[in-house]
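F-box/LRR-repeat protein 8
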Amino acid sequence: MAEPGEGLPEEVLALIFRHLSLRDRAAAARVCRAWAAAATCSAVWHDTKISCECELEGMLPPYLSACLDHVHNLRLEFEPSRKPSRRAAIELLMVLAGRAPGLRGLRLECRGEKPLFDAGRDVLEAVHAVCGAASQLRHLDLRRLPFTLDNALVLQAARSCPELHSLFLDNSTLVGSVGPGSVLELLEACPRLRALGLHLASLSHAILEALAAPDRAPFALLALRCACPEDARASPLPNEAWVSLRRRHPGLAVELELEPALPAESVTRVLQPAVPVAALRLNLSGDTVGPLRFAAHHYAATLCALEVRAAASAELNAALEELAARCAALREVHCFCVVSHSVLDAFRAHCPRLRTYTLKLKREPHPWRPTLLA
């Protein structure tokens, strides 16, 4: 009798199996020889998502270990407060470090709450090991890693991963320990870097000048997070430096996230007229109306996404209406407070590219879900 997989080409089976969870891939590989060959081919594992929360609770399965050589881009999820999940993630990273030449992309995402006073040293050591071994690594995303990142990690990436195209260090830590000096070394060692995520304290005038250098490859994205005390004390960046950077890279997009730790005077220093802000997220403890009006006047040509967390007020409604009238390129708007009907009308009337919005006219149970436009 014919085996159940004999009627489908391996390429078709691989296309199906790549959408399965880790456990389902392992189950498919046990069905028959044809399915086993398809489930372990490189096409299935090229882009892989692994959840240590629901798929890896004990030792690394032999099936997964045998397929790690095929993984080019890995998204790894784990819960640091649960020991089995954390241990599985670290074990996987360390095994990957021993067989990492083919790894091109690594994205780490932590779920749940981080244990109090947890520095994450064991997790960071595993990330160091991967960076030290993955000489072809092109994309490293640590935005969802809630531990303090430091100069040693940046320098490890600079020395061992010269092919880096993107590096995101703008995570939710309460302490900023990456200095501008290590970022400068990174830029010098990784000439193809075109996307960078940093805390504001890690940025400097010298870095903007390095990015604007004539021999620099096209730079596309700079994500800046202002969320810790070091960010509030960061030196101001002159508007002229942004003018030069924008002239050198006309396609540059800046994502700017301002958190409650940033006092009003620091907000004024961060918001420079020449910054090509494409995404603006305001979650300030103080004035939000002023930054919104500033954005309406200076970022109208570049602003595509806006997120606001503030207390509802008539002044906020007026600022949102003005921004809607000026920023026609907006594609998404999310306000996590009740707004007036005129605000909703303004965005729908003046922003023809709008695709999704969260503009609630009355209080609703959380989470607030966005409205999608056809």
